[in-house]
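One such shown below:
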Amino acid sequence: MSDGAKTDGQPGAERVRAGATAGLDPAASHADFAARPVGRWLGGGSWVYAWPAPERCLTVLWGEPTVEDFEALTRLFEIELRPPATPHASLIDARRVERVDARAFEVLSHYVRAHREPMTRYVTRLAIVRPGGFVGALAAGFYEALESPYPVSTFDDPDAAAAWIDAPEGELSALSALAARISDVPELVRSVRGAITARLPEAEVETIARDVGVSVRTLQRKLKALGTTFQTEHAHVQVVEAQRRLAGSSLSISRIAYEVGCATPQHLSAIFRQATGQTPSAWRDAQR
């Protein structure tokens, strides 16, 4: 794995303080969590996993989860499928996921196929809070294609998802707040990226500032303090959205450039190469 300490979720002081606000105790590692999972949480590069009560397990994902992230999560999911675990519901909040490597879905698919029998005994139902766009459609169709061994329902509203698994009010929002605090991406940047994604192909700074509830000057000042700019975040979203279309469709590069707000295919190629080191065509070929 690329970052053992991060993936295993060893928390620093900030993570310990964040965990306390969620009403959960942080675990130092996978082994530490497995020894006493109930009432505890463990975090990785793009995820937080928690077991707030014997009858509920919660996972929050954000950003661009990697194969390593899903491998770490499936090892945690295995804890749910053996004593002293009891039948329980699960919830995966993926609304802040920007992109998922196709190989990560293969990891999850292998996990479901390999553990189908114990899953029928231990998991009563699964709620998924899906992200928008292509990733959301992919997440919604994933368990249908696998013929999940338990009921699965997808939601746009996290409160409705929490209610469906009988989670007490505020439990998911507390874990989401914890995830936001330990995420490498500040909340403002996530909000800006989300607003840009929703506005493409036309995402002007004036509109995005209004969407996130600040003036243009304040937005630019706050982004600068975080070491980024509106132009940088706009280009980041354009590349992420281009990757979604490249991986999930046969659209031409010209069409994708238009849909993500690039004036020309050459403009898309320039920002794409700067972010990934590859042209859009080369990146698409590598995903196949």
Summary: The CA atoms of residues 171 and 250 lie 41 Å apart.
